[in-house]
Amino acid sequence: MCEYNQFGQALGVALPDWQPRPWPTRQVLQGSRCRLEPLTLAHASDLFAAHQLAPDARSWTWLLREPESNLAEFSAWVEQVATLADPIHFAVVDQQRGKAVGSLALMRINIAHGVVEVGHVHFSPLLSRTAMATEAHWLLMQYVFDTLGYRRYEWKCNSLNIPSARAARRLGFQYEGRFRQALVSKGHNRDTDWFSVIDGEWPELDNAMRNGWPPTILPPTANSAARWRVSVNGVFCAPAPL
């Protein structure tokens, strides 16, 4: 319930017991199809090989870095990011193969407000668009909400990145809006679309992920900007007018 001060001004919902949340740690998150392991140099060879299975470099288009041309360059990148406190990178390891097939990270970590973003998502053809990919995201969301007790889990992407926006919606994230001219990425303007899941939505979403997919919860509402308009040439445009 919203609280008001002596002037009749709305203050929002009171959180009298709120405390800063723990910082995420580099630990293994175990699932049935995959596990998330803190990214290390030991994953570099498998990850590089998995990405080489792609027929072209289109999965790199909206990443903030260019593809490495050889294993040595890729290993150098892994070594550079593996010990960072923010972002915290995880390798997605296929349980059956025992090999890393993708990676993702927790980033923009804000313990004071209990907010964190999932980013640097890069899945190889062995992982992309599979049940294992869904489980990888679920494992990280479960860790953030159930173990760490965060209030908000964010997803951001280039507004032209249709696959990322679709993935966010499929995973239950709600579209919040567009930050225009947020970045200059690879010499081009980038407008950034924001999505989120908040703690009050998580129990239903968690249940849906455990018991079947896709979820039927959290449908777009009449006043949300969750319906997209796509132009003839496939460019991701502004949300459709309501």
From TrEMBL:
<dbReference type="InterPro" id="IPR000182">
    <property type="entry name" value="GNAT_dom"/>
</dbReference>
<dbReference type="InterPro" id="IPR016181">
    <property type="entry name" value="Acyl_CoA_acyltransferase"/>
</dbReference>
<keyword id="KW-0808">Transferase</keyword>
<feature type="domain" description="N-acetyltransferase">
    <location>
        <begin position="34"/>
        <end position="191"/>
    </location>
</feature>
<dbReference type="InterPro" id="IPR051908">
    <property type="entry name" value="Ribosomal_N-acetyltransferase"/>
</dbReference>
<dbReference type="Pfam" id="PF13302">
    <property type="entry name" value="Acetyltransf_3"/>
</dbReference>
<dbReference type="GO" id="GO:0008999">
    <property type="term" value="F:protein-N-terminal-alanine acetyltransferase activity"/>
</dbReference>
<dbReference type="GO" id="GO:1990189">
    <property type="term" value="F:protein N-terminal-serine acetyltransferase activity"/>
</dbReference>
<protein>
    <submittedName>
        <fullName>GNAT family acetyltransferase</fullName>
    </submittedName>
</protein>
